[in-house]
């Protein structure tokens, strides 16, 4: 069985469970002993915080101890660190190259990267470069971060000035798009070949994360997602967020180089992304399977819970249910 290490495991019980069902031995790591995904893995470990010098050595020790073949980051928090630590981890890190990871982690740099590769995206400026004739409304958006935090809609120049002074984080300014929003969950191999692209609608989101959506067989979106993934030479999973303009064109607003919050939907639709990841870890070269998924699968997410009890040695364990 292929051992997989999940970093920043957090609440991603869905991903850890999917890899277990796909035949992996799962090891979950997090700094927080109350991260629920820890207790759904075969093994778990508490590690230092990402900004601690001991973070990468702790992961390397887990890779060695469990003979880990694949490292899968579950949030954006440590991707830059992991992309620079490939040689120290001695396992396949499921991320693109370090420069791409860093660029996509900064939404202004991501816009420049999209332009460089001929990928359409909304007009985007640094605060001091917004042209006087810019068309409102405009969005003030954090350059780094996730969960749609620190996004403000400015209806005119005075509001733009206010929000740029009000926001507590380094920001950029971007044109607001009016068309329909879509997400495309792609998966690429180590050579940057797109193996599959599964579009989904954004029926409802909360805190920047999709909680309701439906897979759709939209050939234009499938082609577009595949083209974007290959132009950027993405590796492993990525979530491409885009809008469809009135003329049918698509503009990318964000790309997350990880399994997206809507991961259960492409999984239920038959994307088999965990199996593809495990195949890469085994040194295989799967063939592309574009369009191989079920359309019309609807996802509606909900909160769940996990009760823990003391383990007698300072650790926690799941509480055995009596019913």
Write up what this structure looks like.
The structure is a single chain. The chain folds into three domains: 3-93, 3-Layer(aba) Sandwich (Rossmann fold); 123-175, 2-Layer Sandwich (Dna Ligase, domain 1); 178-300, 2-Layer Sandwich (D-amino Acid Aminotransferase, Chain A, domain 1). Strand 12 and strand 13 form a beta hairpin. With 323 residues, the chain is an alpha+beta fold. Helix content is 26%, strand content 28%. The mean pLDDT is 95. The protein has helices at 13-21, 55-66, 79-84, 86-89, 98-104, 107-116, 157-166, 219-231, 264-268, 273-281; strands at 3-7, 25-30, 43-46, 68-73, 92-93, 124-125, 138-142, 151-154, 171-175, 180-188, 194-201, 204-206, 209-214, 236-244, 250-256, 298-300, 308-310, 316-318. 42% of the residues are buried. It has ten helices and 18 strands. The two termini are 33 Å apart. The chain is globular and about 65 Å long.
List keywords for this structure.
323 residues; alpha+beta; Rossmann fold; Dna Ligase, domain 1; D-amino Acid Aminotransferase, Chain A, domain 1; 3 domains; 5-stranded parallel sheet; 4-stranded antiparallel sheet; 18 strands; globular
Query: Runs with pLDDT <50, length 5+?
Result: none
CATH H level of the largest domain: which superfamily?
ATP-grasp fold, B domain
The level-1 CATH class of the largest domain: Alpha Beta
Gross geometry: globular
Q: What fold name goes in the CATH topology slot of the largest domain?
A: D-amino Acid Aminotransferase, Chain A, domain 1
Helix content: 25-40%
- SSE run: EHEEHEHHEHHEEEHEEEEEHEEHHEEE
Number of strands: 18
Strand order of the largest sheet: 3-2-1-4-5
In angstroms, what separates the terminal alpha carbons?
33 Å
Q: What CATH architecture of the largest domain would you give?
A: 2-Layer Sandwich
Q: How can the largest sheet be summarized?
A: 5 strands, parallel
Mean pLDDT: 95
Structural class: alpha+beta
**Portion in strands:** 25-35%
Q: What is the C-alpha radius of gyration, as a whole number of Å?
A: 20 Å
The number of helical segments is 10
* Domain tally: 3
């Amino acid at each position: 069985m292929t051992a997989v290490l999940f970093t920043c495991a957090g609440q991603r019980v869905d991903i850890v469970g999917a890899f277990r069902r796909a035949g992996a031995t799962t090891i979950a790591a997090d700094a927080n002993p109350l991260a629920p995904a820890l207790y759904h893995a075969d093994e778990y470990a508490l590690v230092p915080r990402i900004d601690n010098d001991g973070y990468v050595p702790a992961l390397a020790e887990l890779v060695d101890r469990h003979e880990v073949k694949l490292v899968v980051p579950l949030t954006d928090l440590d991707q830059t660190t992991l992309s620079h630590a490939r040689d120290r981890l001695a396992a396949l890190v499921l991320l693109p190259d370090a420069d791409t990871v860093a660029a996509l982690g900064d939404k202004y740099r991501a816009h420049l990267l999209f332009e460089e590769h001929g990928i359409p995206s909304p007009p985007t400026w640094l605060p001091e470069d917004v042209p006087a004739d810019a068309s409102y409304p405009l969005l003030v958006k954090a350059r780094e971060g996730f969960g749609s935090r620190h996004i403000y809609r400015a209806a005119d120049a005075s509001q733009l000035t206010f929000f740029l002074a009000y926001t507590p984080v380094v920001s950029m300014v971007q044109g607001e798009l009016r068309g329909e929003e879509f997400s495309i969950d792609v998966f690429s191999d180590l050579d940057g070949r797109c193996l599959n692209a599964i579009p989904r609608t954004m029926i409802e989101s909360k805190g920047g994360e999709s909680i309701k959506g439906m897979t759709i067989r939209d050939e234009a979106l499938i082609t577009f997602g595949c083209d974007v993934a290959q132009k950027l030479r993405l590796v492993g999973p990525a979530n491409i967020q885009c809008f469809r303009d009135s003329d049918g064109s698509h503009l990318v607003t964000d790309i997350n180089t990880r399994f997206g919050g809507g991961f259960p939907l492409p999984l239920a639709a038959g994307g088999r992304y965990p199996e593809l990841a495990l195949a890469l870890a085994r040194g295989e070269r799967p063939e592309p399977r574009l369009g191989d998924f079920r359309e019309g699968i609807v996802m509606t997410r909900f909160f769940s819970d996990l009760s823990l009890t003391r383990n007698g040695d300072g650790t926690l364990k799941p509480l055995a249910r009596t019913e």
